[in-house]
Write a structure and sequence with these properties.
Helix content: 40-55%
Structural class: mainly alpha
Keywords: Oxidoreductase
Radius of gyration: 16 Å
Number of domains: 1
Protein name: Short chain dehydrogenase
Strand content: 5-15%
GO molecular function: oxidoreductase activity, acting on NAD(P)H, oxygen as acceptor
Shape: elongated
Oligomer: single chain
Order of helices and strands: HEHE
CATH architecture: 3-Layer(aba) Sandwich
Organism: Pseudomonas kilonensis
Strand order of the largest sheet: 1-2
InterPro entries: NAD(P)-bd_dom_sf (IPR036291), SDR_fam (IPR002347)
CATH superfamily: NAD(P)-binding Rossmann-like Domain
Number of helices: 2
Length: 93
């Protein structure tokens, strides 16, 4: 599943719903990085990183929450890296 693609994410959760089982927890663990100085980074690289690290988490949470709200329970965990709280040379996004 490509976490950047809303249709693929929604289809994955649609499959989970089709099993008739409860979904207890979801962890968003996908992440990407491309090392470069910010002034050397292409827009394509920027979009790749942001679409996986931010949009992918949002799309996953959005689909998971739809199920959790219907069930009345569920847990969502977004996993980040050390780079999300500590800047490092060469990591522009």
């Amino acid at each position: 599943m490509d976490v950047r693609d809303e249709v693929q994410v929604a289809e994955a959760f649609k499959y989970v719903r089709s099993t008739g089982l409860n979904l207890h927890a979801v962890a968003a663990c996908a992440g990407a990085a491309k090392t470069s100085a910010v002034h050397e980074q292409s827009e394509e690289d920027w979009d790749f990183i942001v679409n996986i690290n931010l949009k992918g988490v949002w799309l996953t949470a959005k689909s998971a929450m739809t199920i959790f709200l219907k069930q009345g329970k569920g847990a969502f965990v977004a996993v980040g890296s050390d780079a999300s709280v500590r800047g490092t040379s060469g990591y522009a996004a």
